[in-house]
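Supplementary Methods. Inverse-folding protocol.

Structures were first reduced to a C-alpha cell string of length 64. This string, shown here, constituted the complete conditioning input.
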C-alpha cells in the first residue's frame, strides 16, 4: 500500500486493502476492497497507486 487508505464509505471499516483483481496475459487490474463488507473501488490497470488515489478521492456524500 503506497498511501493511507480512507475507511470504507459504506460500513466505515478501516479494514480496506488494495488487491490484484484480475491478471490476464500479464496485465494486472487493481482495486481497493473492503475486507468487512466487500465493497470495491474503481479498478485501474495503471497501478495500485492509481486505484488507491481514486478510493481516497471519492465523494462520501454519494455513498449513502
Amino acid at each position: 500500500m503506497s498511501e493511507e487508505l480512507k475507511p470504507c464509505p459504506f460500513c466505515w471499516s478501516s479494514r480496506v486493502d488494495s488487491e490484484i483483481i484480475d491478471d490476464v496475459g500479464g496485465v494486472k487490474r487493481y482495486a481497493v476492497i473492503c475486507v468487512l463488507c466487500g465493497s470495491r473501488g474503481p479498478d485501474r490497470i495503471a497501478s495500485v497507486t492509481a486505484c488507491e488515489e481514486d478510493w481516497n478521492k471519492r465523494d462520501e456524500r454519494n455513498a449513502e
